[in-house]
Design goal:
Blueprint (H helix, E strand, L loop, with lengths): L19 E7 L7 H12 L3 E7 L5 H10 L4 E4 L13 E2 L1 H6 L4 E7 L5 E3 L11 E6 L2 H13 L8 E5 L3 H10 L6 E5 L3 H14 L5 E3 L8 E4 L15 H7 L3 E4 L8 H8 L3 E3 L2 H16 L5 H13 L1
Parallel strand pairs: 1-2, 1-3, 4-7, 8-9, 8-11, 9-10, 11-12, 12-13
Antiparallel strand pairs: 3-5, 5-6, 5-7
Helix pairs in contact: 1-9, 1-10, 4-5, 4-9, 9-10
The structure holds NADP nicotinamide-adenine-dinucleotide phosphate.
NADP nicotinamide-adenine-dinucleotide phosphate binds next to α5 and α9.
């Protein structure tokens, strides 16, 4: 079968010598929902591609990216703990990934005979020239898209937001949200120094955004949990319960998607708020990655259904 030929509906869709590959690298990676979601998307697009998952030790990340490049992979996703380290390991770094300090998607690009660098997934024939890796970040745009969809917002302009956490996901979220024209961004983190560093960074890159450390005296339009508190059933709330009960924020987004309902989401709903988990963000970082690799619109409905089935049965 030619390099990029569509598989007809009744074709044998087993792996063969023309199959091309994408993958997610993580450590651990066993619980990743990305293969289920991405393979459903690839099938729906009729591509003879497969999306795999590899447990790559951090010490081996550079070699694994290089191996994928040399073996003709279309692209990669990177998950915990690789997103920061990969900044130094790609040949070209997208501006957004540099600003956010995190790479979650790699597109392998080849020199098109006509000149420009082109994603290898868009080529009609296997690349026979130089291939390079481009590092991008699709997480932060995915968060904004998920927030708008979950809460029926046209824009986040003018909103007041309380962001819990100052790790990798919180940092990318804060720097991206700051560009949405928020009225104020409140930062709370267990290690206050990290929140202060993040505030200083926002002040530098987005000086128009009012960033304040600590809990807001009044309520806010939106609370986002970007800590890892809530992953385990026994975790305490990532937020001051008293603040939540008295300020009763209208919208609460938890980046955690497994379990489906975290303690924070339960508490937010019982305080009268609208709450959503991080599955939408996971979905949209994946659909955007697929679009970068294929150059085609992602089959969002199919990918959402596959993701939800994988996550929640
Ligand atoms: N939905 C999605 O697509 C998506 C994408 C990315 C991440 N996420 C989720 O976002 C969360 C954060 O990920 P990350 O990559 O930013 O992780 P990270 O860099 O390790 O940051 C972890 C954050 O959680 C805080 N934290 C950890 N343990 C805590 C505890 N016992 N008490 C209070 N705070 C605690 C940390 O505070 P300190 O600074 O004090 O250590 C830090 O702010 C994870 O749950 C991840 O699953 C979801």
């Amino acid at each position: 079968m030619p390099y990029n030929q569509r598989v007809s509906n009744d074709a044998d869709d087993s792996v063969n010598a023309s199959t091309r590959y994408c993958a997610v690298f993580g450590h651990p990676v066993r619980h990743s929902a990305s293969p289920a979601m991405q393979n459903a998307g690839l099938r729906a697009l009729g591509l003879n591609w497969r999306y795999l998952a590899f447990d790559v030790h951090p010490d081996d990340l550079r070699a694994a990216i290089e191996g994928a490049r040399r073996m003709g992979f279309i692209g990669l996703n990177l998950t915990v703990p690789h997103k920061l380290a990969a900044l130094e390991m790609v040949d070209v770094l997208d501006d957004e990934a540099r600003t956010l300090g995190s790479v979650n998607t790699i597109v392998f690009e080849a020199l098109d005979p006509s000149g420009p660098w082109t994603p290898v997934g868009g080529l009609d024939a296997p690349p026979n020239r130089e291939v390079r890796s481009r590092g991008l970040n699709t997480d932060a745009d995915a968060l904004v898209q998920a927030l708008k969809e979950e809460f029926d917002w046209e824009s986040l302009g003018g909103a007041t937001v309380l962001l819990l956490g100052a790790g990798g996901a919180a940092r990318a979220a804060a720097l991206r949200l700051a560009r949405e024209g928020l009225a104020a961004l409140y930062l709370v983190n267990r290690t206050q120094g990290r929140a202060a560093e993040l505030a200083a960074e926002i002040a530098k890159s987005c000086p128009g955004t009012r960033t304040i450390l600590g809990y807001p005296p009044e309520s806010v339009n939106l609370v986002i949990n970007a800590t890892s508190l809530g992953l385990k059933a026994e975790d305490p709330l990532p937020i001051d319960a008293q603040w939540l009960q008295t300020r009763r924020p209208r919208f609460v987004y938890d980046m955690i998607y497994r379990p489906m309902e975290t303690g924070l989401l339960r508490a937010a709903r019982s305080a009268g708020g609208r709450a959503a988990n991080g599955a939408g963000m996971l979905l949209y970082q994946g659909t955007r990655a697929l679009e970068l690799w294929t150059g085609r619109p992602a089959p969002v409905k199919v990918m959402r259904a596959a993701l939800e089935k994988n996550l929640y049965g």
